Amino acid sequence: MSDTERAVARMAPYIDAAFYRTQIEEARTRGVDVALGAEEDPGVHFQTTGWRLGLAPNRWFDTLGYLAATPEVAAMGINPFLHYLEAGLEEERRPMPFFSDRTWTHPDLRRYGRCEYGPVRHVLTFEDQGPPPAERLPERLAVHLHLFYPDMLEQMAALLARLPCGFDLLVSVPEGADLPGLEQRLRAALPRARQVILRDGPNRGRDVAPWLVQFREEIRHSDLFLHLHTKKSPHGSYHAGWGDFLGHSLLGSPAVAAQMLDLFAADPALGLVAPAYWPMLRRAPNYGDSRDLCTHLATRMGLAPLPERCPDFPAGSFFCCRSSLLVPLLDLDLSFADFPAEAGQICGTLAHAVERLMGILPLQAGLRFDMVAVDLPFEQAGQQPRRLTVAPEQGQEPGKGAGISVVCTVTDPGTGPQVMDALEAVFAQSAPPQEVLLVEASGDDGVLAAARKRFRDRMARGQLRLLALEGRSAAAARNAALEEAQGEIITYLEPGTLWRQDHLARIIAGFAADPETQSLYCGLVRSDRLKGAAERSQLVAPPYRRADLLAAPLIDLGAFAHRRDLPGVLGLRFDAGLGEGAPWDFILRACARRAPGQLDHVGLARRAAPVQTPALPAEARKRVQLRHRNERLYWRQDRPQIALKVPAPKPEFKHRWGDLHLANSLARALERLGCRTRVDILPDWYAHHPDDDATLVFRGVTPFEPRPEQINMMWHISHPARVSLEEMRGYDHVFVSAYPRAAEVIAPLGMQASVMLQCADPEVFHPQVDLTDVPRHDLLFIGNSRKTTRWMPQACIDRDLPVAVYGAEWEGRIPPQYLKGTHVPNACLAAYYRAARIVLNDHWPDMAAQGFVSNRIMDAGLSGALVISDHFAGEELFMGHVVTCASPAEVEEAACHYLADEQARRDMAEGLRRMVLLHHTVEQRALQVLQTLEGLMRDRMLRLR
Predict the structure, then answer these.
(1) Are 582 and 373 in contact (CB under 8 A)?
(2) Which residues, including other chains, have CB under 8 Å from residue 458's CB and lie 6 or more apart?
(3) How far is 310 from 359, CA to CA, in rounded Å?
(4) N or C: which end of the chain has fewer CB within 10 A?
(5) For residue 439, what are the domain limits?
(6) Phi/psi at 181 (nearest 5 deg)?
(7) Per-residue pLDDT tens for 502-542?
(8) How far apart are CA 29 and CA 476, in angstroms?
(9) What is the rounded distance in angstroms from the CA atom of residue 477 to the CA atom of residue 409?
(10) What residues does 439 pair with on adjacent strands?
(11) Residue 235 sits in a domain of what CATH number?
């Protein structure tokens, strides 16, 4: 067997042929001709050609990142993936040292920002599919709930209430918990639970030890085992929401729960299902620090040797499996003493080892482990429309059930008669309100006087309360009423509105029908009477869709009702600064976490013209849309606006700053992806632009003060000594344009940082340039002096090489015969590079040491030039297609060699151009920025709603 055959055989189990071919197709779209026939083995191609192009053999190995982390492998010229399999695994090297998001996501999943990943085999539908046949439901389902946080009992019970069949509930709780009280609450919330068994225990082994130690026998007597726990993930804010995601993936709705269980009835070869990987997990699956423990447990259970690479497993420890799979684990008779005391461990404990073995047990039993996902993102689960069909008699009379406070504000003088008529209709309700708060803010004393005279008895009984707030806005008047309101439910009465006699009774019934309802609304028509109005006029209250409500004020405040405790919980009030848009904003915020219920009736009519709802003034609409911009971006109702901050200090000298030209190219690429952009130089950094969603700071010599109202991203492109970790922590995300420096930054910042090298723009730099009147030089150096001695030009001068220098502030620093010009316009650089036989490059010493690669290398490479540079950390990423030198003598040797050998020069230039096209174009960087930004915008939207 040849070396190539041996290498291919070693890698064969891990070559992802489909993924590899997608890389080949992408290379061709970028203008790189990579030949791979339909019948050719991708593994052979990767061994002979692909790895030298920086292609990856699968989604979990990063060829260039691995070489950057192990430069000695590049120096040996061996296949980095082969090195990983034969040495790196044993040395516990990471296959993707610098995270590169190549995760596979199911094509049926539509997500904004980040998406769960992994081998998702089933996409469950959130909407009701009808009850499954009784014969397909499991007869013996055991459910284990580790209730470490008892305050989450209602949340977990709501998940389990969606199960379509009976089950035995096994609950583990911390020592000292109120067992009788918890059991009573669980039994009341879960009528399908045949038995509820609670046992307390020490805080050891997280959620794993309790079911392995305390409920072994109950699990043995079941057919299916469902495990979940109260996951708050306090060890890292990046994982906020992980528990909600896990619960949603298995039990997000009755339909999801039924489909999940039915997978086992439909497929005897299925052993275990679990949610896909949480998108904030960067490197799943991996053994982490648990490999030795996994090996030890597998040996004790008599399992076959573990796979050298960790198989997929239920990360987060929510899963459902055939109980028979667990017998080898249960037979170990583990005790709490086998698990270490809780100390905030993130990995490396026995519990983490068991979690990983859960992915191995199905394989050992000849069954499958499938991942599942839900078509609806977990953050939208609470926003699904909910129609409430109720009869008035379902409601309870005030005093026996929920009381209603009706808020009526008067801001328009002369509406007194309409107000009186509206109040008469309110007090004539079949279920009268607990109170009406009449707030007079128009300055018309006659309204309050008329109310006192007409409703004296109501006032005496406390059913009518009067507030006078002269000269206040409608928003301020409503807020004053909210402060005074005593009813459990708040609704709003507008002058000129007619109510059905059973309107309030239906509102009470709606809240009683669904205790989780926080708000609801009914139909409203524009008419002078209710009878027959629905047939003659347009209904104002379409089915609720969050995106539609963000686009327009489709729910009228007069048709809206909410629980009184809602404003206190969310700090919710009407915003007077939004003018006529305040009610729209109020309803949007009131419904941000949970969709309102829609009462299936027309409850009121508005005496107003025209029939259509009046349009909101443009300025008020804009203010509301700006306030809810994060959500509008999430629903793709607007384009994100990004301000790129470049530290060029003066307009008259900005053309000297390469950062500016890079920023302009990146801005154009982002606009092609649907963004709006603006490039600011230093004097404009802090100008007022309220529409900016994000800033991307090109962090070189000047720091920027991040603004909390925007998403702040840093691109750390130079001068590492000037940028501290403390400064980076002030940003939402930091892109680092150097592999070695990134390793130092990612270790403490985690998901807050990633690698993003500098790049080149194929629209500006390419070989097909017009060389007419362009000077041709053997050795070309373009760059400003920086008012110091630059290594590469000086090395050429020291060796009497024919270098041509272009740039500013060189006078007096080099002999004048070498200086050929003070400036080359950015639009002409490609032609100068293309015309030169060799382009020279150097770095600041600290930047070379930290791996900050000059984008001149990439610009010249795309233009078709050979580049000679000083040595720099991370040069392996160009696969030897950049000539690097450590001394003037080496520069002379390299220059003489390539000037004399045209074919070698062309081969090196073409190799560099291929590497830049494949890995370092501005389009790739723009996509990385946008993907990161969308994830951050989604996170912010969830935090602020």
Answers:
(1) no
(2) 427, 436, 464
(3) 9
(4) N
(5) 386-630
(6) -65, -45
(7) 999 999 999 998 888 999 999 888 776 555 544 444 555 68
(8) 59
(9) 6
(10) 409, 467
(11) 3.90.550.10
